[in-house]
Amino acid sequence: MTATAPMIGELAREIEAVVGPQGLISRPEQLRVYESDGLTVFRQAPALVVLPVTTEEVRDVVRLCRRYGVPFVPRGSGTGLSGGALPVEGCVVIGLSKMQRIHEVDLANQRIVVEPGVLNLWVTQKVAPHGYYYAPDPSSQQVCSIGGNVAENSGGAHCLKYGFTVNHVLGMEIVTPDGDVVEIGGAAVETPGYDLPGIFVGSEGMLGICTKITLRLVRRAESIRLSLVAFDSTDAAGEAVSGIIGAGIVPSAIEMMDNLAIQATEAATHAGYPLDAGAVLLVELDGRAVEVDEQQGQVEAICRAAGATEIRIARDAEERTLFWKGRKAAFAAMGRLSPNYIVQDGVIPRTKLPQVLREIAALGEQYGLRVANVFHAGDGNLHPLVLYPDKDDYERAEHLAGDILKTCVAHGGSITGEHGVGVEKQPYMSAMFTEADMETHQMIRCAFNPGNLCNPGKVYPTPRLCGETPGKYTPHPLELAGVADRF
Amino acid sequence: MAIAAGTLAEALGARAVGHVRAAGDGDAVAGVRPTVTVEPTTEEEVAAVLVFADAERLKVLIRGGGTQSGLGHPPTGGDILLSTRGLDRLVEHEPGDMTATAEAGMTLADFQAALGRAGQWLALDPALPSATTIGGIVATAVSGPRRLRYGGVRDQIIGVRIARADGTLAKGGGKVVKNVAGFDLPKLLTGSLGTLGVIVSATFRLYPQALSSRTVIIRGVEAGPLCDLAVQLNATTLVPSAIDVVGGAGDGPCALAVRFEGSRAAAEEQTEQVRALAAPLGGVDNVFTDNDEADYWREAAGPALPGASESTVRLKVSLLPATIRPWLATLRDRAARLAVSGAWRAHAGHGLVDLRLTGEAAALRAIVADLRAAAVVQGGNLVVTDAPPGILAVVDAWGAVPALAIMRRVKEQFDPHGTLNPGRFVGGI
Ligand SMILES: Cc1cc2nc3c(=O)[nH]c(=O)nc-3n(C[C@H](O)[C@H](O)[C@H](O)COP(=O)(O)OP(=O)(O)OC[C@H]3O[C@@H](n4cnc5c(N)ncnc54)[C@H](O)[C@@H]3O)c2cc1C
């Protein structure tokens, strides 16, 4: 269903009446900015981009899209790595980046209410002076939006102990794909009824647009200790990870990088990572000082026993930031090794780590491509970076990336831990789920988004038809043609 | 519609021999007595029961341990009682990955015993662990005091397998702790009270058992100052597993119980901090460890236990932690005026309050309405978890629910004929 040019023109005029000329983008050269998200190999220019400022504007724009039968795609900062915000042909992109207000800070109850365009890091910055922070910390936290985090159920290095976005969202105001403004969840820890925030988080923009989010804040720990530990090999580092977890310690983060990743990062950030190491671990402990001290001793002993060649403990907050900077800049730093690369996001049961890393290395050799590894080792979330110096090698790299994901699934894992399925991993959904599973999941989409105008064509390879839902509004062909209105 | 046990047994065939019987009085759910009880032992058998029910347009009630049969509205119908107790196996436990899968009918106590052999546990501590089943825990999303530290069911569940109302078997999530592939079916099923599908198994992330644990209890202080202290504790860098304030409906002294888990030194040090912070209140403090501590927390489940009589209601109230104090003042005031007695336990760190009240029917109706209004006005809510039929006939167990229209559509998608636990959930879903 592609909208005709005159119809889009008519729709644009109506949208402009809602958001004003400054809220509408329709010039082709400006639309191009929105033709992809962080996954730039997929590109499609939208018909229009709208930048609403209020919930009412979002609602009215959604209603207009619906009346015209034009698909719409929510978008935050556009840093998604799976094509979640990729436009579909003839669509309206609804960009939430102008909705940036922080509505309420309630420290006594450890809550904050924000708009979707608020950047992840701003939440922490807002409450840091009072000793609080917002726990989910994607590496992109300086630029990604809370709305995008909600849609992707984003994670970060500290999710091992503190959980993902879904564990920190209590309630939301959403504009449904039908154009209704609805509260789901609330401010309290439980709300009667189905856990709608629980399914909205991670729904990759297919269940509506969130316009206000109530987040949980976390008290900054008394003591934080970050160690940078070097090993000769990823096997040795993996053994240390298993040892730490096996000892009953729940660190706030355990991150691993292999030699290739260390090379790239060091070149880009000079964080002081040892260039000759086969792997480094970043192990962070937090909690009460007495307990952190005890656990630090255990961690060091376990790492030494696993063959650690060097253990460096960040002296202060500044050095901690520097160590983290190396890890958080890892994706971007890959540019130093190869102009083109694919970031993958497979998950495996942690105990399979050494074996899967060997299989990935073997696959890399088989394809004749280098693979760097950066990952959240504590929860088995791998980010293999498939490097392909020559653009023409994209297909080969993509095949390799796909094989890596299939390896993860074969070991009982998942095709994505935090970046989402989007359009990129659609072909691999059937490796994890049966047709019946996927049909069942899509019942959720049918309940929220029966007309499938809200971010269509994402996640599931075959869209399910939703059947006749009572009260569902089907536009008349004359309306679609812009000839008649429904007033 | 009445069906004979023989008809269902015939439909299920050889695999169900001995699993189907005529329902007895003990099989009634909130006064609704089904005609047939079936206790399948495999997920295929569960599916076959549902295919049969779907074809015959029969209503199916689902029961695990039966500890929460009073939750919600009484069902609007029920022909078949499907007991999950035949599905009681541990499917998988991977200590190195700290994940485990159990069938729905396994009791929490059995599950914990199996995990405990590897020094791990499912970090959920609801009341009645030896009767409560895994499926029941997921369906009702029950939690306990230590939710403060570990989160609720939604925070621990990573995968689920269900039999849909039409008998289709489907799964969501997986068995790794981090996974965003596809919609989060496990969260949708959590707290769905059996209205979307029969949970046949669930997978969870696990925690290591704590090295040591201690609980400090401050007694003999009024509720108000204790609630303030709880809010104050929330704002410190202490890491308690539970902060509970307990008391009776009327005036009188209350108690604060704060639990710490972790290394011995850390638990001791934090216990001392609490004693120091509480000292100005002038209460009496005690520190419990080992068996004393375990006994204390077992008995602590009191107000959360079922067993409504004609004159008792049980409530679960969700509040913002800092509003517990004024809400309790409303409770004290109304209880005195309406001659209602009772006991409550406020999980003051996360904001859930378990409450059990006894009084005249009219007084109970009035106090529930007032307490609900007092919760809602502060951004909270109140659910009646158990009450005599006379009260449920006039008081909505769930209260007003936002987004009910979407919830109805979810139900229509999953269970278009309203087969599963009909009428028990919000808005009569
Ligand atoms: C260098 C780099 C590092 C990264 N590191 C991490 C990491 O450590 N962990 C991690 O999890 N991710 C990471 N990401 C991925 C990405 O940053 C996250 O997925 C992020 O949450 C996307 O936010 P965004 O605002 O850019 O959303 P977008 O990319 O604009 O959109 C993402 C999805 O959200 C939907 N959406 C956006 N706003 C709304 C809304 N208001 N309502 C409903 N749906 C909406 C879109 O339709 C789309 O499906 C990284 C990305 C980059 C480029």
Helix amount of chain B = 25-40%
Alpha-beta classification of chain B? alpha+beta
Oligomer: heterodimer
Classification by helices and strands of chain A: alpha+beta
How is the largest sheet of chain A built, in terms of strand order? 15-12-14-13-17-18-16
How many H/I helical runs of chain B?
Answer: 14
Please give the count of helices of chain A: 17
The CATH level-2 architecture of the largest domain in chain B is identified as 2-Layer Sandwich
Radius of gyration of chain B: 22 Å
Which CATH C-level class of the largest domain in chain A is it? Answer: Alpha Beta
Enzyme class (chain A): oxidoreductase
Organism (chain A): uncultured Thermomicrobiales bacterium
Cofactor (chain A): FAD
Protein name (chain A): Glycolate dehydrogenase, subunit GlcD
Key words describing this protein structure:
heterodimer, A: 487 residues, alpha+beta, Uridine Diphospho-n-acetylenolpyruvylglucosamine Reductase, domain 2, Uridine Diphospho-n-acetylenolpyruvylglucosamine Reductase, domain 3, Alpha-Beta Plaits, 4 domains, seven-stranded antiparallel β-sheet, five-stranded antiparallel β-sheet, 17 helices, 18 strands, 34% helix, disordered C terminus, B: 429 residues, eight-stranded antiparallel β-sheet, 14 helices, 19 strands, 25% strand, binds flavin-adenine dinucleotide, glycolate dehydrogenase activity (chain A), FAD-bd_PCMH (chain A), FAD-bd_PCMH-like_sf (chain A), FAD-bd_PCMH_sub2 (chain A), flavoprotein (chain A)
